[in-house]
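Why does residue order matter? Because the sequence determines the fold. Keep that principle in mind as you read this record.
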Amino acid sequence: MDKWIADLGNGSYKNPILYTDYSDPDAIRVGDDYYMTASSFCNTPGLPILHSKDLVNWEIINYALENVPEKRYADPIHGCGVWAPAIRYHNEKFYIFFPMPDEGIYVTTAADPRGRWSEPIQIFKGAGWIDPCPLWDVDGRCYMVSAYAKSRIGFKSILRLTELSPDCTKIIDMGKDIFDGNVNNQETIEGPKLYKRNGYYYIFAPAGGVKTGWQVVLRSKNIWGPYEYRNVMVQGDTEINGPHQGAWVDTVTGEDWFLHFQDVYAAGRIVHLQPMKWENDWPVIGEPHGEYGTPVSVYKKPDVGAQYPISYIPTSDDFDSYRLKLQWQWNANHTFDWYEMTGNGIKLFAINKEKERCICDVKNLLLQKWAFPKFTADTLLDVKNMKNGDMAGMVHLGIAFAAVYIEKENGIFRIKSKQGRQTFVKEQAFAEEETNLIKDGIETDRVFFRNIVKPAGKGDENEPLWETSLQYSLDGNAFENVCTFIAEAGRWVGVKHGIFCAHEGEGKGGYSEIKYFNYK
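Structure:
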């Protein structure tokens, strides 16, 4: 089945509500609708917009960014680009604040989250400011809390508050640092979200690290502090490690809930939903244990005042539309001449690549996030319009990466594979790969590729492992295994996989037409 369904159909749900790498989620309620966004790094379109009526069943409805707003993202820059965003609604307008750790803080807006979002405005220029979140106070003034990235600015674990113009087009007061986690047992505090309730200003923020941390809440009667704090959700004896940053939302019936992510290594940062209660103006998130809670695995669904049907993030694609479906993203900033939707497939044009460029750094990889913990994905390529120098096939993209593909040279088709690793030095990515000839002298108009992913136990540090295999077939029945290895997450992201068509050498390439990309 090509879907992950968290709704158990009996009034309860299971975590995660999304077994998909929606890293650093933030969410809001507007009326009886919920909207969520997440990090997208160098992939485009960016800033996914998800919608739900009941906090359990989600669908992807749009992206706020067509491309990353800097020219250098014409090529993949793994781990850079769009980091943890915040989505808010104010005066009948939607806002998304998002950081780019090397460039600054940006804001994009829309009247309708399903429609076109504005060109981003850069309100802070410089490296190291991350995780911005605004709050409009009752007097109309606007504030922004943010954190710092040590890799860009040399320090971390500190939260800063600044004042913005009410329309969020500029910073009018650079403000001050308001909380230092280095001296408060909250090292690596980051991802702050700013709220106001019952006269208190609250900052929800994770600390302790993505895989090993906990949820913290700060509060103060004065937005500038000083802030007191509590740890309000910890892993405890559950399997839900981290529990990392997210969003507090409520329902029309007065319930409170918390969305957050869990880092499960190769499968990425998957999204959980936790019940939340207020005790003496402090939140307790998850299953209560005094002042803090622990994450739940199964729980009754939120009371949102109505019942809604099951929905899910799509995965399989027959490319039977004239518009690319929303589960797909490119490996870098894209242009619309890279592909053509025919209504009966998608033509991927063979975009020129340098021979020395590793497959992980090809800009026109068309990628999906892993959709669930065990699956087989099949695709069919029509290759009769490929030209000499063209290559097309299936790719697995993480720090460990691989591809199996068909290549045309001197009128002859060959099946080849590439396999390699990325390394990162001072946030710059380097990659090496090996190319192997699998089968020579093929006469065919089509080729099938397959990616099999299945759990493979636990690693040395008790982390979940996944085994991934890439295969090919000339008839769609008998598949030959090309490579099998233990998957590794990418830079701050889970593994992505998908399809590509590229061209090496002189002249202009042809194209390959992909007929489907189906999960089972």
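The chain has a mean pLDDT of 97.
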